[in-house]
Amino acid sequence: MSDFSIAVRAFAKINIGLKIGRLRPDRFHELRTVYQAIALHDVVRVDVQPGSGIEIRSDNPRVPLDESNTCYRIAERVLQAVRQGLKPSPAMGPDGTAEAVPLQGKVLIEIEKRLPVQGGLGAASSNGVATMFGLERAFAVKLSAEHRQRIAAEVGSDLPLFLIGGTVLGTGRGEQVHPLPDLPVTHLVVVTPSVGVSTPAAFRRWDEIAAREAELTGADAAGTIRECGQSVFHWPIFSQAVSASEPASGVPAVGGDRAETLLLDLVRTGIENDFERVVFPEYPELREVKRVLEREGARYASLSGSGSTLYGLFASSKEARAAAERMITAGHAAVATTTLTRAEYWQQMFVSN
Ligand code: C5P
Hints:
The protein is of the alpha+beta class and 353 residues long. The chain contains eleven helices and 13 strands.
């Protein structure tokens, strides 16, 4: 690993509820979701060396190493910003004097894959944002928040959430992100079935079902948008967000009874991921995993994004670990982990050398 000077943890996300709205003229779907960062992660290493170009390496053969990789697309854009005259902030050498940081060079990116590819955990998107942070450090530059958001949204709908971390409300096509107060730290079991689900294909299937339902019921697209917009704001996490008077980072930690109440609220409100309606009929084994999580004691279980990852929220770390162990014994790729607060997300992002 001596080639790489900077290592960044690219954390995964889960979706706690996901509502799909209308198909927009730009061929994206309107959606509402709550993204939640979790402690599982890949590691992205970056370095700038003499030469030019962008080279990607990975220990996983399923990761594309060409221009289609989100890390490549982010690196291209960060390099362009750097070339267009972004001023480097002086990097301090060990003796306290400012070091000259070359604003050119060959960008080397190594992706250590621990998260599933096409898994609904946002891994590729998170890898892309980790590359952005790594390169900012390598070039000793800082993009503005607006510039970061523009680049991230250009590369994919799921990238901007990783510029915030913790609990995040996603609107628009998922790229408009709003920090929410941290949810209480919650223990969960994440199951990663080996099947990969294509997100564009899942959206297409959703359109087919919506068109059929509209024909049968006479429902119009506007009704769907209204439903999408309204139901989501009845979620307890939103009322919590709206009533929060302190900024997100200043919200005191809550746990115990409060965490339990929130989990039960989630169940009562019937928060759902719309993708389950199209993904489960095609992959019945995923519906079965959700049932197993519920049987194992999950207070709430769901598909994450368009899958194929599923997760279950548990009342304690002990319960989550015991459930994961039993599921592993039964042949599931299960792991117990926790949600990450926004502060933890930022504190743990850079791997210290
Ligand atoms: O933005 P991203 O690259 O993740 O989108 C991949 C594809 O998923 C899009 O080209 C589109 O077909 C579909 N998509 C969508 N509505 C969204 C997000 C993605 O239809 N809100």
